[in-house]
Specification:
single chain; alpha/beta; 3 domains; three-stranded mixed β-sheet; 14 strands; disordered N terminus
Length: 661
């Protein structure tokens, strides 16, 4: 392959000084919500951290005879930067042409003149409008209860300045004799480039070598590889001999001794490592250079167990790099905090995988490699057993959440044993545990901000991976209450319209938490002290709970706030007395998917409710609102009464969740 002719680190302002062309062989712009939101959130976080430079990747180009740069790799981020410059009024514009795509060029020509084009329905450019909408609506700091978006003039101005001068690309210029078609084919069909977590694996195996523990390299490598497959249950990633040693005859335990945060966790378990060594091929500890050029792959020995072919494919709520960040914070956070010169400025280890190598370099002196590999295994067992997974589905309405533990099914007639999975708990609390964790998951979907997951994993650090159902549920309820206080406590009890704390500004967790409280209440006997609630309001609450007796819902990735009494209706029917406060209060809002929101936005409340008259799988608050609408209509009085019920329930949240089912 041709070597890079030239490579420069350039800030965006300097990148924009040249002219670029997107050749015909490049695909169309394809970035969606995940990529755009992540880019903006990362830039915002870097800006707030005071970083001098923030790198967003590489741009591989070939310089044509006319001086233009033909983009071979990196056109997605370059196109995104062009969109940002157009709508944020950055004062700089990218000269970006597209081969044989005049409608795209027209779009950017208009956008660069400070005007957003209007032909949204044109299929060849509709994705650009979706990107623009996402730029304005992305919550830049998901840990803040108050929305922070680029709609704020102050935030926008700071971001524009940071993007222009501090955000950088590495532009790599290929030689003029490069076979562009062949190079592009290689770029798009190459295997995965070496990732940061693979580099860390090599560094840890190197530390084993430094400590004279080469004999455990193959075992530790196998543990790492098994743990990295987040979509596969950990027991499935080991052969029968290793599985028996690690997880016991029924595969439902973990044969590690001591607490996982013990300073000598690895040495305590050396007898087990020696036994596992016999089951593995010897693998020499490689240098980092060798790791870069090849992967350590350890064969799994022949398995005498049948795999359960009926097991559905599952999806983890985080990926392996994020999982490593959780391990770092669980066990090495104090080392990281100690690296700050000023104790008042010390921060916890971030959970974003973009800091993986940076954090490792700070804490590496405190990492004993055998401790780390076994802690990794321990936490994966905990994760698999006590954190929900979902089925793999493109249709979120069909998403199911599961909490499973392994066991061995023995068919004595056929003489076979099969590794299978069943509910983690047989007790009645199991259903509530699944709902509480999935409530937290759909509320805090972004992988770098799953503080709830860190909290759950902390419960297991000092003990064996076993926890009783009632105790686990009690801890989860405490966590849910804590998350409410952190994100939502100032959104209730508002008596006047406040656009920063009402309407689309209401945190999604508040909707999901309220739905959980309703669901919980319909399954318990009341022992709540309602002394500060009027008899009339208590009767209304009782009636609402009766309305959802048959509701059987799941928490899904609903991410759009909808006004049941539409904003447009308020403009058309001033005589109905629905003020801005009642229009935007919690009593008139439901959380739905964006696709559903677009279908419902222009309908009146009665028509909306009629569409879902046969559904029993809607969230409780939505089911209640639709039932009331069908029976009484939906106006100021109904909104006010429902708001009163929600606020009464939320004010008694602690008592409600302490009630035994």
């Amino acid at each position: 392959m041709n070597r890079i002719k030239d490579a420069d680190v350039l800030c965006i302002e300097n990148i924009f000084k040249d002219k670029y062309i997107i050749p015909l062989y490049q695909r169309n712009f394809a970035w969606g919500e995940e990529q755009i939101s992540r880019l903006l959130q990362d830039i915002y976080e870097s800006m707030c951290s005071g970083d001098e430079h923030f790198y967003i990747g590489s741009l591989i180009v070939l310089q044509r005879g006319n001086g233009e740069f033909e983009v071979i790799d990196g056109q997605q981020r370059l196109t995104m930067l062009s969109i940002l410059s157009g709508i944020l009024d950055m004062g700089i514009h990218l000269s970006l042409r597209y081969d044989s795509r005049p409608e795209v060029e027209d779009f950017f020509r208009i956008l660069n003149n400070g005007v957003v084009p209007k032909n949204r329905k044109e299929s060849s450019i509709s994705h650009f409008f979706d990107a623009i909408d996402l730029v304005w609506t992305t919550q830049l700091d998901v840990e803040k209860s108050e929305p922070i978006t680029l709609k704020s003039e102050t935030v926008k101005n700071k971001m524009v300045d940071f993007i222009k001068h501090n955000v950088c690309l590495v532009r790599e210029i290929m030689p003029n004799d490069t076979d562009v078609a062949a190079y592009f084919e290689i770029m798009n069909n190459r295997g995965e480039q070496l990732q940061e977590h693979e580099i860390i694996k090599g560094l840890l195996l190197g530390k084993l070598h430094e400590k004279g523990s080469d004999e455990y390299s193959s075992v530790c490598s196998k543990i790492w590889d098994a743990c990295s497959q987040m979509e596969t249950r950990i027991q499935k990633s080991f052969g029968s001999s290793s599985r028996l040693l690690l997880f016991g005859e029924n595969c439902d335990s973990l044969n590690l001794v001591g607490a996982s945060d013990d300073a000598n966790y690895g040495s305590q378990n050396e007898p087990l490592l020696k036994l596992l060594k016999v089951q593995s091929k010897d693998v020499e500890a490689l240098t980092l250079e060798e790791i870069v050029n090849s992967h350590i792959n350890v064969e799994i020995e022949n398995d005498s167990l049948d795999d359960d072919e009926k097991s559905p494919k599952e999806e983890s709520i985080i990926d392996f790099p994020n999982f490593l960040m959780h391990i770092f914070r669980l066990y090495y956070n104090q080392t990281y905090r100690s690296s700050f010169h000023d104790e008042n400025e010390a921060k916890d280890i971030p959970l974003s995988e973009k800091y993986l190598l940076k954090v490792y370099n700070v804490i590496k002196q405190d990492i004993n490699p055998t401790d780390f590999f076994l802690r990794l295994l321990y936490c994966r067992v905990v994760f698999d057993r006590y954190i929900v997974k979902s089925n793999v589905t493109e249709d979120d309405e069909k998403r199911e959440w599961v909490l499973l533990k392994p066991y061995i099914y023995e068919d004595k007639n056929r003489g076979t044993k099969t590794l299978r999975f069943k509910q983690t708990y047989d007790e009645k609390e199991h259903e509530a545990i699944v709902r509480s964790i999935s409530c937290l998951q759909v509320s805090f979907r972004a992988k770098p901000y799953k503080n709830f997951l860190q909290s759950i994993l902390k419960w297991f650090v000092h003990s064996n991976p076993q926890i009783a159902a009632d105790m686990y549920l009690e801890k989860l309820h405490e966590l849910m209450l804590s998350e409410f206080n952190r994100t939502s406590s100032d959104y209730i009890g508002i008596t006047e319209y406040d656009d920063k704390r009402q309407g689309t500004s209401v945190p999604h967790y508040l909707f999901n938490f309220t739905d959980y409280l309703y669901w919980w209440m319909k399954n318990i006997n009341f022992v709540v002290n309602w002394n500060d609630t009027t008899p009339e309001q208590l009767q209304t609450i009782t009636n609402e709970i009766e309305l959802i007796r048959k509701t059987d819902f799941r928490f899904l990735n609903r991410n759009s706030v909808e006004h049941h009494y539409p904003q447009k209706r308020q403009e058309e029917h001033d005589n109905e007395g629905v003020s801005d406060f009642y229009l935007n209060c919690l009593g008139n809002l439901v959380l739905i998917s964006k696709s559903v929101n677009s279908r419902l936005s222009d309908k009146n409340p009665i028509d909306k409710a009629a569409l879902y008259s046969e559904r029993t799988d809607l969230p409780p608050t939505r089911q209640i609102i639709y039932n009331i609408t069908r029976n009484k209509g939906w106006g100021k009085n109904e909104i006010s009464n429902h708001l009163g019920c929600i606020e009464a329930i939320l004010s008694h949240r602690k008592q409600i969740l302490q009630t035994i089912k």
